[in-house]
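User: Working on a comparison across species. This one is Tripartite ATP-independent transporter DctP family solute receptor from Oceanobacillus polygoni. Can you predict its structure so I can line it up against the others?
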Amino acid sequence: MKKMKPNVIIILVIFAFVSFALIGNDALNQNTIAGQSDEVTLRLGQSKAGSHPVSIGIDRFAELVEEKSNGKITVDTFHDSVLGSDREVIESAQRGSLELASSSTPNMTSFTNYFTAWDLPYIFEDKDEVYKAVDGKPGEIIRKEMEKSGFKVIFFPDYGFRQVVNNVRPVNLPKDMAGLKIRTTNSRIEQADFREFGASPTPVAWSEVFTALQQGTVEGEGNSYSLLWDSKHQEVLNYATEVNYNYSSDIVVMNKDKFDKLPIEYQDIIMEAGVEATEWQRALANEREEEAKQQFIDYGIEVYEPTPEEMKIWKQTVEPVWDQFVREGAADPEYVDIILETLGKTRKDIFK
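Assistant: Here's the predicted structure for Tripartite ATP-independent transporter DctP family solute receptor from Oceanobacillus polygoni:
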């Protein structure tokens, strides 16, 4: 038997070494992927009180994810602004330093003007219209649009209609709001609403509103009964007027890169959990809103429900806000038309 030449032996050794290295590296990669697939922990941050229906719905979503994945996926939820304000957690999710985040939709207008249309006064007049739009073509357009900013939309928790509340005097009609300092979000449309109502809109961060009402920096605000009660604002309010001038949804998003890197099976589980959590949370939100309204009444807050004729006045008072904001660069006219078509109504129907 002939002896191998030294240079041939060296070549074979190098070949064997490279082969083992490649095999080993591939095995290592497979183990890493398998390790990721076996157990994944995701964090979800948002600002509302843990007792709010949005927060409870998010907790239900986390439970469903864990159940459907047999414990392989854990979603740790953080409420009460523990990880930051709406804006802060959303930006963290966009960067990828946080996997999931939830925010009220008015705070999302910097990512897409489509949310500006949702803010238009009375574009949604009841919950059936809200759900029809969110679950239909208008919602699908936003889901696709948000991906351009690096987000995967998981689901839209039901926040509720905003009512006008204050601690100065009863408000039956817009004229009764003359000069009242009303806290608003940073939404330019909401601020315009209150200017048309005759009030003085004052943007204040949500975490500072209670103190602002205590100290007289503002004298009222617009928000849902449930959020107001869960945040103990009844302690610094005296009057509520049920005008439903604006609907605000929340939105739960995940960093899209992180979502896309999950196994398809895990992606499906998360999205299925979002669908089921939506239905469950909507029922809870509607039940809780009625309960919170009664709690307001029992607490001694004077709640006024305008007559149908008075509601026409409330609506017609803010119709000029549509003239101001339904334009390119604000509430996209084409998207507004899609919402109205989905709901089977026209602008004239709203303000007649």
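For your comparison, note: Residues 160-248+289-351 form a domain with the D-Maltodextrin-Binding Protein; domain 2 fold (CATH 3.40.190.170).

User: Helpful, thanks.
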